[in-house]
Amino acid sequence: MIRSTVLALLLPALAFSQLKLTRLTCDNKENPVGIATANLLFSWQIGSPKRGVMQSAYALELADDSNLLKTGNSLHWQTGRKPSTQSILVPYTGRSLRPAHKYFWRVRVWDQTGASSAWSSIAVFTTALDSETDWSGAKWIGYEELPDSMRIVPGIHAHSGKDPAGSRPKKTAIAPYLRTSFTVNRKIKEAFLFVSGLGHYEFSINGTAVGKSLLAPGWTWYEKRVYYNSYEITHLIREGRNAAGAILGSGFYNVDNERYYKLFSAFGYPKLRCRLVIRFTDGTEQSIVTGEQWKTARSPITYNSIYGGEDYDARLEQKGWNEPAFDDQGWKVVVVVKPPSGKLESEPSYPVTVRDTLDLPSISQPAKGKYVYDFKQNASGIIELKVKGRRGQKIELWPAELLTKQGLANQQASGNPYYFTYTLKGDGIESWRPKFTYYGFRYVQVSGAIPDSIQHIDSLPGIVSLSLLHTTSSAPQAGNFTSGNDQFNRINQLILWAIRSNTQSVITDCPHREKLSWLEQDHLMGESIHFNTDLYHLYRKLVYDMIDAQTAEGLVPDIAPEYVEFVDGFRDSPEWGSSAVILPWMIYKWYGDKTVMKTAYPMMKKYTGYLKKKSSGYIVSHGLGDWFDYGPRSPGEAQLTPKSLTATAIYFYDVRLLAEMARILGKTTDANALDDEARAIMKAFNGKFFDQRTKIYSTGSQTAIAMPYCVGLVPDAERKAVFETLISSIEKSGKALTAGDVGFHYLIDALREGGASGLIYEMNARSDVPGYGFQLKKGATALTESWPALEEVSNNHLMLGHIMQWFYDGLGGIGQSEKSLAYQHLIIKPAFLDSVASGTATYQTPYGTVSSSWKKVNGNWNLHLQLPPNTKTTLSLPATSIENVRADQQSLTGNKDIRSPRQENGRVVMELGSGEYHFKIKNEK
């Protein structure tokens, strides 16, 4: 009796301890600062060693003091126990929140048995400045004002034939210092900084840099939208005298033509706006804002350009310029300048920061007075220089992806001239890194200095060290892939370096000559990128960029922000503009958030209407087509597939997706009309391109067959025959890659969906024809723009990296059902290949981490799965008999955690709950 009583008391505690709550997020960020209050969404992940865990209820509490949560008194919002399985994107429904304030929250959950978790640890978020009045009169200030007559908006293309020098003199914008000082005479509780500096800024408090961001804020179309950033700076403010300082750079806000430039533009000269909020323990508050009380002077940055590089003259430094004791009597009063036209908003995406430091280069001397540092990796970034020498000595540094035959820096295909210069102040070991530019490079050619390890000649400065600082978005990593196949691991790294190098505040095409947001890769490479990186905030930002870029006619141009208007297909290509429709759908499917879809609906409807107007009999014929496919001519516009095929196929896909989104948003009339339009496009497409006798689409290229197969243009009755035609055509062509930027995505998808993962391996594991292995054999360390890794084009490009998606959803088999959102209903369908006999793919879904590990042992396949709580999974394994599959060393029918085991199309299929599982699949050969 006593034992039963004790057990009854212990059981709730045991259940209580098995549910753990982790990764609490507000607006899909952990403990964010600067969150807009209009649409607050809360999420959490559940951890448990048990299987089959599903949430049945939650309770959430929020207060403006963490101590109030602990006592349960004076809460700002509490839900009580709310029956619900929802653990992501729970909307805030409490009282209005104050701007620039910190709030604390916690959550607890109950599982399907009624067992409860403990309260989570306390999470925090800080609200943004949502309205103009929240800025407390802060003004935009600068060193000088650009006259309206000198504005160049939009920009001028470098090869447009226009003479930008005739529009404006060759004059780089001044990169100024700005500062103010203030006194704090009470005990500090908390302090926050809200700041925007255009084009970019670096802000400091009492001589210490605020945050780790580079090139902040992110790039936007400044006529419509400008971002500011938010920081908690309590640790930097002290009682007594304080100083705030900033340095401004040009970015895309002002691009000159002194060196290399892809485009030439001038929205204005650099400018700053900020509000610093200090709250005291006595309940009072102090605000420091930009205005006439600020002072300004030229900084040691004598040149900076997003396209041309950066120069720094250390002799012009003013020691302590951003500290309280500095005497700024010799500085001039700032100019209060006109604000930018765009609405000021809190930046939604993660900042660019330094991710890696490559600091063990090899050094060569290919010519007299020139030294080349090889960092062994092509990456986006800047240099960090440590040097010693005499005052006034000048060093020039040229970064490059490739070397010439003579071993010198080769910028032929990456933007020339681009370089850094540093002029010494002659004060021991000096350290410097650029602030307002970056480049894609592996090598740095140095002149005017000698490696410190070499005996000095002519008293030249000695380089103590030179490093490559790899800069990229600081968005959290979402997944990881590794396998027992060394070449596929190297291919994965090749693509990963290209992804990271081109994930900035937009997805760039390359980190050097263009740095522009070419839109086609956002959707074509989206699946691959999202398996590696949390894309929620960046892709939401990209949707806003497209909304801002859309023309009155409905065109979404090929780049957004559209800093320069290109011509022909380079401005209007349907495969590019269709990101406007596909990205809101991706965000909905990946993360479960339909608010972006709702915001973007007018843009999407207008763009599909634009394509309809441009069509003739529902056939769209303009654009670039399957860009950089591999054919007999130099790569560029499509060679092997008619442009009208890819343009019409993507038009159909857009209309089909928009019809589905219209239904989700309750726009039934629109959905029905779009369904009719999709049927009309399908009829016209098949009438023009499909050969009923041969089952071939158009030219029969890889793209021509795979793309209609994937987007749903192939009639159901013809899908099997069309897929067989695709396989046959690939085999007849020697299994070589020919599909380009657009088509290769669909080729990979078609082969995986059709069960031909073995063919994907055969096409991509080789090095004798242009492709991944060919690039590796040529020495590439990042994915190149062309299949044969041509030197005359970019050698750090992510647009052909679509095989990475297959590493996760093919080899690892990680996917979700057609109706699932945010991977709540997982589909695990691994493709076991002898050539990739072991591996692991992990992906951080909004509900938690899913992991799929496989290994062939003694001819049998072992599969280890980790599935997150509050999800369900359909597992599909290649086996012809249920008896040939065992789970946890038991038969499927004898395992209580395996539901509905069955045979379907040569595979064994079953339903699983969350938890850890081990399967053994008997070799049937």
Overall radius of gyration: 29 Å
The first-to-last residue Cα distance is 58 Å
Q: How many domains, as an integer?
A: 5
- SS content category: alpha+beta
Assigned CATH class of the largest domain:
Mainly Alpha
**Annotation field: number of helices:** 18
What CATH calls the topology of the largest domain is Glycosyltransferase
Average pLDDT figure = 95
Largest sheet: 11 strands, mixed
Strand content bin: 25-35%
* Spans of at least 5 consecutive residues with low confidence: 1-15
Bin the helical content. 10-25%
- Quick one: how many beta strands? 52
Shape: globular
Gross CATH architecture of the largest domain: Alpha/alpha barrel
Account of the 3D structure:
With 925 residues, the protein is an alpha+beta fold. The chain has five domains: 126 residues, Sandwich (Immunoglobulin-like), CATH 2.60.40; 218 residues, Jelly Rolls (Sandwich); 120 residues, Sandwich (Jelly Rolls), CATH 2.60.120.260; 333 residues, Glycosyltransferase (Alpha/alpha barrel); 97 residues, Maltose phosphorylase, domain 3 (Sandwich), CATH 2.60.420. Helix content is 22%, strand content 31%. The protein has 18 helices and 52 strands. The two termini are 58 Å apart.
